[in-house]
């Protein structure tokens, strides 16, 4: 049975805050988005805003959680969304192409992930679980490709998944320093090397 009253209103307000925060951080970035600006955007005081999250760190952690939920559905990494088996090469290339359009969220992710590496940080557990989920999802997708004959049979699916995640994070860091780095193009090239196909999907010809 659906909850009503103050609880439901509180949940709705929290969702409103996260939706607005995604917009603001995507355009302004982590360092230039203040709690005061977020509070004003949703008609609350700073104290009122933090009532829903507890601290700025918890707020930004939940912003990233919301971003991940949306990205998993949009780019085919959520099997429960009815999109069929995960297509790791296609999904990751489309994801990093999208990330290039939301620089503030890339900045938030990269800076927060680095800060949260220290045990005791409010987002430490979140990022640990996030990497575990991503590796598991990528590993399952890569293993399906291997079994379908799209990858070498002796390939280690879990190791390739770990390397793909590292490449995505590394490309984002380079891109923040040099926006001319085409993250999607480089990632597509990587998958082309792994699958033995060109970036347009065509099988490479063996040299005579």
TrEMBL record:
Transmembrane segments: none
Keywords (A to Z) from UniProt: DNA-binding, Repressor, Transcription, Transcription regulation
UniProt-listed Gene3D superfamilies: Tetracycline Repressor, domain 2 (1.10.357.10)
Residues of the DNA-binding region: 34-53
Residues in HTH tetR-type domain copies: 11-71
InterPro entries cross-referenced by the UniProt entry: BetI_C, Homeodomain-like_sf, HTH_TetR, Tet_transcr_reg_TetR-rel_C_sf
One annotated GO molecular function: DNA binding
Name assigned to this protein: TetR/AcrR family transcriptional regulator
